[in-house]
Write the structure tokens for this entry.
Amino acid sequence: MPKLTIDGREIEVDPGLTILQACEQIGIEIPRFCYHERLSIAGNCRMCLVALERSPKPVASCAMPVADGMVVHTNTPAVHKMRKGVMEFLLINHPLDCPICDQGGECDLQDQAMGYGLDHSRYKENKRAVEDKRMGPLIKTIMTRCIHCTRCVRFTTEVAGITDMGMLGRGEHAEITSYLEKAVDSELSGNVIDLCPVGALTSKPYAFVARSWELKKTESIDVMDAVGSNIRVDTRGAEVLRVLPRLNDEINEEWISDKTRFACDGLKRQRLDMPYVRKDGKLQPATWPQAFAAIRERIGGLAGAKIAAIAGDQADCEAMVALKALMTGLGSTNIDCRQDGAKLGRGFRAGYIFNSGIAGIENADALLIVGSNPRWEAAVLNARILKRSLMGPFPIGLIGEVKDLSYSYQHLGTDPAALKKLLSGRSDFAKVLKAAQRPMLIIGQGALTRPDGAAVLSLAREVAEKFGIHVPAKSWNGFNVLHTAAARVGGLDLGFLPGDGGRDVAGILEGAGNGEIEAVYLLGADEIDISRLGKAFVIYQGHHGDKGAHRADVILPGAAYTEKNATYVNTEGRVQQTRLAAFPPGDAREDWTIIRALSDVLGKSIACHDLGSVRGMLVEANANFMRPEETMQATWGAFGTEGELSDVPFHSPIDNFYMTDPISRNSETMAECTQAFVAPKQGKTGTHG
Amino acid sequence: MSATPKTFLFTAESEALAKAAIAKYPEGRQRSAVMPLLDIAQRQSGGWLPMPAIEYVALYLDMPAIRVLEVASFYTMYNLKPVGRHHVQVCTNLPCWLRGSDNIAHACKHELGVDFGETTADGQFTLSEVECLGACVNAPMMQIGDDYYEDLDKESTVNILKELRAGGQPMTGSHGGRYTCEPMGGLTSLNHQDDLRAEKVAARAGAKTTGGDDWC
């Protein structure tokens, strides 16, 4: 290991590190613009200059590998002067428009100019002006501010997997642009806003909205997909103004998808802020006691078998465990958290979670994707697959729809027959899997929500067992179920599933249609076929006036994920908690408290009185809830049931990445994205439907 | 001057040249040949690179079009706008300027009736101001097409342009009466090569077209 001296301190670091990384290890901060630890090294901003003894010229520390015996100085007057010189160059053409720049207050250039900038400019020449580029509905560009660090170019190429952006021209005439000024068509495009060290690329929906220092920052969890990206929610008063990523190497590194970042304007529209009760066929505003009374009147005397509950895709675990307790109290076993009818749950946990973990993708050396479009189902996870495939040979096979996943793969077929063929070992890809040390299988909801889902799951398990995807001896489990709903794994962990003789979602809908089910409790469930609820009495608890609320007889206004302290379990089986960033609007309440209050009215009180005791109920239901932020080895067993396989091709449940839940469906920004990115691909025009 | 074509395809000769350029690099590293291929495409399309040509090269080398455009826009030798039949590139960097490149530039502008960056109405000449072309020892100089014209003065510049306009091929290389870039006052060393040199000088006097390329 090379030994070097930095500012008089001798350290030993791993070979292959750069001087800048070595400096960071001992807590010396080197200013930089172009260097980013998750992107390739460009070395073009020159801000990270340090003095190296026996080197006639200063070196760019971000690009210089450490060597034995180096003597580095980072804090001498000479180094300071070099950096001042670089800063002066950067500022030659940078406009002095900080007061009207959205980056102001969180701008790398502004911050570092405090340390290395001159108090005045020595240049009298006109600054150059660059025409702004069109980059779609999410990214606002003011290209005159660009300092050509090329972080955005490297990000889109290396992480997002699209090659649309580049730097044209040279020197004075260099300009960052997207090819032919096309909108940047990536589900991760918003991250270039965070990466841009200046105000050249800023958030279009957030333009001129607020200053960073006015915002209250709350660390939370995203629920737009099942990845559970770590986020920071920035609020001013009761309004969520923006969502930013938070570092978590295990899950999202420091990226989030555009839906996570930009759907927050949906939190302001179509909100349910007071209870409603349907009178004479019309929903009328009501008070909480009135709403509860209406429910008691209707379901007070009903037999348990005539009542049912469905939990939606964003329901939190606290609400689900409370609702399960209430339904048990009412004598009903008709509960289900699988709106889409996925044939998962019951029994072995390894059969419904992403066992290897998201970071585990980097350890895999072959991948089989079954019935999933990870680019749309879990955009951040898809970036991890791309990262792995850029690291070295990584054969990927896909059984399902042919989609642009941003990396190349071998298409093995579209239906279960292809999986069957693979199991027989006759295909080439079977040999690839056989030869791999740590092969991985990702099975999506597109394969599991079908009528033959259980059989496909069983088949996938056999593939996993045959090809060493699950090897207990090596403690390698590459069998991964990719969920699309943030609530799903939590619901399955809690057993929010039909009990003895209970009905699942299909059964509930059928029962509601033919009158066998007389009351249905929808906990944020909007993605079921509402029209099949027949004459049933529908209680809708949720935060948006979406499909479920329109059909409801009583509406109980709940809280969105930014408005409650709630527990979610991501697709890896990792327990995480959101934190209250803003209070729910009007009379809306945290979801478990609503169910707790209703249970009193119905005379079936749930034994919990505060958040701590609800979480106690979670732990009682499943010990996994005791250890938040962790993933645990799940038990393997014979999950899935053998059965007839149909020859219908797999189809991903997500047809439009930008609109999958009540929040994103009510977001104007997401509507614009749909118009810009999804509609053209589906051959629809602006006037379509 | 060619109008922007809608499509671009290598001719058989270009294709052969492209294959030869790609063959210089290891298997799978064909992208390294992007610069020669752009040059081949530029020659084929009359001295400039229309977008279809850039996209064709990208497809040919299996690389994103933006990466090819980055290269094409970085180097001034690739023309992204149409140029005349003769692309006159006058160096105005310091050594040439000290030796009177202002006069050369003025002579060109006057003779052609266009400014830098413009093309004559008949599409014969495009005049450009360029950075150092590496022939400072024979300053001032200009490049027309692939040929260097060196040790220029106002008169020789005008003559060169006139001859080109008439369809002729002016003498390339030095117009200051010396052979290649040897000292103005005659050789002071390496005299043993005199025989060889005499041969070359004689050949130059006869053929009128030889630069310094074959010497050394």
Notes: The two ends of chain A are 64 Å apart (CA to CA). The interface with chain B takes residues 163-170, 178-179 of chain A (CB under 8 Å).
